[in-house]
Amino acid sequence: MGSGSGFRFFREDLCDRCGACLELCPVLELPREEAARQIEALIRGDLDASLVLGFCETCNACEFACPRQASPYGLILERYSQALAAQGLPHMAKYIFPNEPENMWSNVRVLMGEDERALLRSWEENLERPRKEILLTGFYNNLVPFVTQTSLLDELRPAIAGSDSMFGMGEDAYRIGFLEEAERLGRLAVRKFSELGVEKLYCFMVVEASMFTDVLPKRFGVEVGFEVELLDNWLLERLRSGKIELKHGLGMKVTVHDNCCGRYMDGILQDTTREIAERAGCEVVEMRHARENALCCGWAATVPTLYGPTSSNPLHTLLNLLQALYLRLQEAEATGADALVVPCPGCYVFLSLIKVLVGSRMEIYLPIELIQMAAGETPVHRNEERAWDVLAVTTNLLLRWAFSPRRFTPRPVDVEKPLPQAGRGDAARIRLFGRIYHSALVQNPASRRAIAVAVKALIAAYRLYLERKKRQLLGAGK
After folding, report:
1. Cα distance between residue 39 and residue 68, in whole Å
2. Would you kindly state where each structural domain of the chain is located, as residue ranges?
3. How far apart are CA 208 and CA 228, in angstroms?
4. N or C: lower Cβ tally within 10 Å for the chain?
């Protein structure tokens, strides 16, 4: 294939260029004939003739749409790997790398209370103690440690462990085409848990769970010698057995966001989330894109902005993120549901961000929060507060961008080292932005309406730009 990548996930021998993968892509939704042309261009490596890499949100729906199991998603990852090797990443990408001082994980901690920081420290310490069972906190879960403050987890609480330095077991690296790092981190994680004597790994997030059950063994040939179970499945079994007693039904109409990695593990999380909602007394209504064809929450819409002519402009990254987040939120609102149930803490954070920016009234809950409410327990539920914290960190990063190199080559993450802490200047600016965003200056009806109008106008203008860009690329390819 001449991809320039040392990895060969795509099965060109199985692909008949039918285009079904891109026709059924919930983002591209191309006519079959055009979809066939686009997959052919991608196979040839003619990236100038392909719009895929400029629009793909790495949701992996194409992988499950392919009738011949040729792994078109694997081909996209190979092309991203090729581009990464050739040009590196923009400064904005430092946001996700835990070994970079600008990383969101330690930067968001600047605005956390001591209760949450203490939880994070205890989880990192627990990761050094031999044990047969671990409840792995998950990469994005560590942005919202408050969700663990519930009696539902008392049985597993001594086993809660995790560290941001493990970089989601390599999942984020995998998604952006940093394939060597994804494999290295995955192997390190498997070795780490094996050395601790872990026999059962419960996962807060399907992101980490699917790395162990699907990606690492099937893509990289990594043998995983321990059992993996999703925390939501553990909670559901306790509901079914009566170990968790529900006191009243919630009487809400909800819709479910099926996150990207929920397609792995035979799609079990999709059914689990819906059953938890129904057992909690909710009526489930479906969005236009659901289950195997669900849209990404929008967070991964940052990935196509890492490569290409506009990849050094962080505003392009931010706008692409916001418009994709809003698209998903709009689909949820169109169902008439009272709330959006989100089984991924990462999606929970970023959908909460767009909720506060556009002034949506739709509530956003994790499945565990539905169970808490139905069991008579009040969740801590700081998702909106944390969304403004994430915005404060992002604002600081945008400010830094003006005085920073435009591109960088990512370095392997040292999992033995703690996260680099935010520098004194960064911490001071983040606290300042945090105070502003949480102050009465912003948190009043007039300001919130003005922010919503401005954000929606920016998103509408950016969507028009994307449509023009898409038409131009399609016209150039004919």
Report:
1. 14
2. 20-87, 92-438
3. 10
4. C
